[in-house]
């Protein structure tokens, strides 16, 4: 894998970090490889078994913290886990209803503007989510700059939070991020009994790394080196799964 010359490769995480951890796991790009489209991703049996064994090993101290909505995470087969969706705006415990704000009308207006922009531009994809909306340009990277300008303009006009992602611009209500999700989950329930360890790949995971560090824990950046609050790194999804697998008895 090519590394940016400007940022040093962080060391791999020691296995001991998992002992006593409250484990916060990003989903896309961390537990599953990036796919061409949002619905090109699945949770395979191996991954599900691994997460269940880890959760049990950690006495329930495992949460998935994603930009996806809780509903989508559940549809993907992750209902058995503590979930924080839409970049920290939604929460759900297994078997319980989702705690989330109302979908604001401004998101519908932004979604309509995204559709108007994407219309007639093959490869652009509008992802409707519970309380947010994404404009994906992985299938048409030539539109990335204009998509970003549009998203920034809509964010300013409708007082929404612009969340850049991987070949993606999302708009969502403000007031939360993955860092606030870590703080919220560390203040109640099983997660409060461990040391936070946040594993993620995307820029939206930086707030999660920062919150974990502020609470005396650690972060593991997945992928290419960059400026980060994480203290350790793993190169790719396969390395994450290998690392996690070492943390549970076979
Ligand atoms: O916080 P995450 O769990 O990492 O979710 C971030 C976004 O992930 C998804 O988009 C990304 O993954 C897609 C599938 O691999 C890929 O096609 C896309 O280019 C990526 O940006 C998801 O669709 C978003 O809703 C999440 O916010």
Low-confidence stretches: none
Beta content: 15-25%
CATH architecture of the largest domain: 3-Layer(aba) Sandwich
What's the helical proportion of residues?
A: 25-40%
Category by helix and strand content:
alpha/beta
Family: Belongs to the trehalose phosphatase family.
Pfam family, one: Trehalose_PPase
GO biological process, one term: trehalose biosynthetic process
EC number: 3.1.3.12
Please write out the topology:
Layout: E1 21-25, H1 45-57, E2 62-65, H2 70-75, E3 82-85, E4 90-92, H3 105-118, E5 125-128, E6 133-136, H4 144-158, E7 161-165, E8 168-172, H5 178-186, E9 195-200, H6 206-214, E10 218-222, E11 232-234, H7 237-246
Parallel strand pairs: 1-2, 1-9, 2-3, 9-10, 10-11
Antiparallel strand pairs: 3-4, 5-6, 6-8, 7-8
Helix pairs in contact: 3-4, 5-6
Fold and architecture overview:
It is a single chain. The chain has helices spanning about 45-55, 70-75, 105-120, 145-160, 180-185, 205-215, 235-245; strands at about 20-25, 60-65, 80-85, 90, 125-130, 135, 160-165, 170, 195-200, 220, 230-235. The protein is an alpha/beta fold and about 250 residues long. Helix 3 (about 105-120) packs antiparallel against helix 4 (about 145-160) and helix 5 runs parallel beside helix 6 (about 205-215). The longest helix is centred in the middle third of the chain and has 15 residues, at about 145-160. The radius of gyration is 18 Å and the shape is globular. The model has no long low-confidence stretch (mean pLDDT about 95). The protein binds ligand L263DTV3. The ligand O=P(O)(O)OC[C@H]1O[C@H](O[C@H]2O[C@H](CO)[C@@H](O)[C@H](O)[C@H]2O)[C@H](O)[C@@H](O)[C@@H]1O binds near residues 29, 40, 138 and 166. The ligand O=P(O)(O)OC[C@H]1O[C@H](O[C@H]2O[C@H](CO)[C@@H](O)[C@H](O)[C@H]2O)[C@H](O)[C@@H](O)[C@@H]1O binds near residues 34, 41 and 204. This is Trehalose 6-phosphate phosphatase. One of its GO terms (molecular function) is trehalose-phosphatase activity. Keywords: Hydrolase, Magnesium, Metal-binding.
């Amino acid at each position: 894998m090519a590394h940016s010359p400007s940022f040093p490769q962080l060391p791999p995480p020691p296995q001991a970090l998992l002992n006593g951890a409250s484990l916060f796991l990003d989903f896309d790009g961390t537990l599953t490889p990036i796919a061409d489209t949002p619905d090109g991703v699945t949770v395979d049996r191996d991954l599900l078994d691994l997460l269940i064994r880890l959760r049990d090993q950690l006495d329930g101290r495992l949460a998935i913290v994603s930009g996806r909505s809780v509903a989508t995470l559940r549809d993907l087969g992750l209902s058995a886990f503590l979930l924080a969706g839409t970049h920290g705006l939604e929460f759900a415990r297994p078997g319980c209803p989702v705690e989330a704000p109302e979908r604001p009308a401004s998101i519908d207006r932004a979604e309509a503007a995204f559709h108007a922009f994407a219309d007639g531009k093959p490869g652009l994809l509008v992802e409707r989510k519970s309380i947010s909306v994404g404009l994906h340009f992985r299938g048409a990277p030539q539109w990335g700059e204009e998509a970003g300008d549009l998203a920034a303009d809509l964010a300013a006009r409708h007082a929404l939070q612009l969340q850049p992602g991987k070949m993606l611009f999302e708009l969502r209500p403000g007031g939360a991020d993955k860092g606030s999700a870590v703080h919220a989950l560390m203040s109640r329930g099983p997660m409060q009994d461990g040391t936070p360890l946040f594993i993620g790949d995307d820029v939206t995971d930086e707030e999660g790394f920062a919150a974990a560090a502020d609470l005396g824990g650690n972060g593991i950046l997945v992928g290419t080196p960059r400026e980060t609050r994480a203290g350790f790194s793993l190169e790719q999804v396969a390395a994450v799964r290998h690392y996690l697998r070492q943390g549970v008895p076979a």
